[in-house]
Amino acid sequence: ARLEGHWAMIAASFVLVMAMTAALAVWGLPWAAQKVALRLPQEWVVQLGKGTLVGLDSAMRSTTTLPVARQQTLQAGFARLQAEAGVKSVLVFRDWPGPNAMALPDGTIIMTDELDALATDDREVMAVLAHELGHVHERHALQPVIASSGVAALVFVLTGDVSGLSSIVVAAPTIMTHLHHSRALEADADRYGFALMSKTGLDPVWFARIIRKLEAAYAGKAAKGEKAEVSDWLRTHPASEERARQAEQYRAWH
User: Fold this and answer.
1) How many CA atoms lie within 13 A of 230 on its CB side?
2) CB within 8 A of 138, min separation 6: which ones?
3) Rounded to whole angstroms, how far apart are CA atoms 95 and 71?
4) ∠ CA 247-184-206 to the nearest 5 degrees?
5) Could you give the angle at the alpha carbon of 187 between the alpha carbons of 140 and 230, nearest 5°?
6) Average of pLDDT values for 50-65?
7) Per-residue DSSP letter, 117
8) pLDDT at 174 over 50
9) Contact status, residue 58 vs residue 94, Cβ threshold 8 Å
10) Which terminus of the chain is less hemmed in, N or C, by CB atoms within 10 Å?
């Protein structure tokens, strides 16, 4: 009773609760999301990926303009990267607006036709795909989805009970279309991609080249006052000069 009537204690308790809530949102949920993503049963991961691709194809169409021979060439290069990475992944092509690539929870990597048109060398495309394999390897696509379903994620980490994860499966397609990867996850995928490229005989400098082209493509549209052809949720990999420099310096550091 004395504590309830003590305004200083009430204020201190309020501040403590707010601080703990903020800490949970900033550190707790991302930590839980990472743990859940790596421990989630494969059948759940497959469900998440299929639902997301179906939702995206419904909104954006499931067509591609790339000739079959060109698709086969890119698939062959991707197969070499995938074999070295040792992860389960499938490459699909879509004629969606904007040059882009994105990894879905089940390991499906979507590459747009415009990305192939933007690249002037196949090694630039492989650099992007190596980066996406980094997202697949670390299950990065799952983490923002799981973090958005924080309670279910925390229960799974603490008890191992998967019953609450059904809500994540239902919500995943919607959440995936509105979330970008964080800077930390992008940096992780960059490092993984650089290492993978080096193992397969590709210089990470090709990543620097394509990421500068991506930046120039979007900057050019902005300078002309044109509306971006790609919606916010599709542009999941914002380019930066810092990331390009890191790619160029990778060989010197290693």
Assistant:
1) 26
2) 37, 38, 185, 188, 189, 192
3) 13
4) 20
5) 70
6) 82
7) H
8) no
9) no
10) N
* Contact of 210 with 119, CB cutoff 8 Å: yes
Q: Which amino acid is at 60?
A: M
Task: Note the Cα 247 to chain centre separation in Å.
Answer: 18
* Degrees, nearest 5: CA angle 214-86-175: 55
CA–CA separation, 25 vs 186, rounded Å? 20
Question: Which residues does 42 contact at the CB level (< 8 Å), separation at least 6?
Answer: none
pTM here is: 0.71
Q: pLDDT at position 196, please? A: 96
DSSP 73-87: HHHHHHHHHHHHHT-
> For residue 113, which phi and psi values (nearest 5 degrees)?
-60, -35
What CA–CA distances, in Å, run from 150 to 24, 44, 146, 168, 236? 9, 17, 6, 10, 22
Other C-beta atoms closer than 10 Å to the C-beta of 20 total 11
Check: CB of residue 34 under 8 Å from CB of residue 143.
yes
pLDDT greater than 80 at residue 64: yes
* Token pair recorded at residue 186: 């992008």
Residue 179 binned pLDDT confidence (cut-offs 50, 70, 90): very low
Query: pLDDT value at position 253?
Result: 74
Q: Following DSSP, what letter does each residue of 156-191 receive, concatenated?
A: HHHH---GGGHHHHHHHHHHHTT----HHHHHHHHH
Percent of the chain past pLDDT 90, that is, above it, reads: 35
Mean pLDDT of the chain: 78
